[in-house]
Design a protein that fits this description.
By secondary structure, the chain is mainly alpha-helical. It has 6 helices and no strands. It has one domain.
């Protein structure tokens, strides 16, 4: 059954809310990795993977109510489809870390801006190609 504009907006808002949770997970993992050294980019890759796994699970349950029983395949598909938004996210973060001393001092700013940059891209692809209902 096609989604209405209202349903689509509700899903986008739930997707964004899950994204806020993903932001918290992302930031927590990044800061945990940074405790071990000055690993801004490596830490960001690890934190992104953790956040992507969290957001996949929450979106499958909360946003799209996926009934797909092949969890590994759906998770891999989610990661693949959202890699474009992830790339936008990571490039935004890397540019800010490289150019803005404030972001170097507070990497959470780079995580936040990167997350916003990838939000719309990821929602559109997730809705169309991962959790199509």
């Amino acid at each position: 059954m096609p989604t209405t504009d209202s349903t689509h907006l509700q899903r986008f808002l739930r997707f964004a809310l899950v994204g806020v949770g993903g932001f918290v997970v992302d930031t927590a993992i990044l800061y945990a990795v940074l405790v071990f050294g000055d690993y801004f980019l490596t830490g960001r890759l690890v934190s992104f993977l953790g956040a992507a796994t969290f957001t996949w699970y929450m979106n499958r349950k909360f946003t799209f109510q996926s009934r797909n029983r092949d969890l590994l395949r759906e998770w891999c598909h989610f990661l693949l489809v959202n890699s474009g938004g992830g790339l936008v996210n990571l490039v935004t973060y890397a540019v800010l870390i490289g150019l803005v001393p404030l972001v170097q001092a507070f990497p959470v700013i780079g995580v936040a801006v990167g997350s916003l940059a990838g939000l719309l891209f990821n929602f559109t692809l997730s809705h169309r190609f991962v959790f199509s209902t």
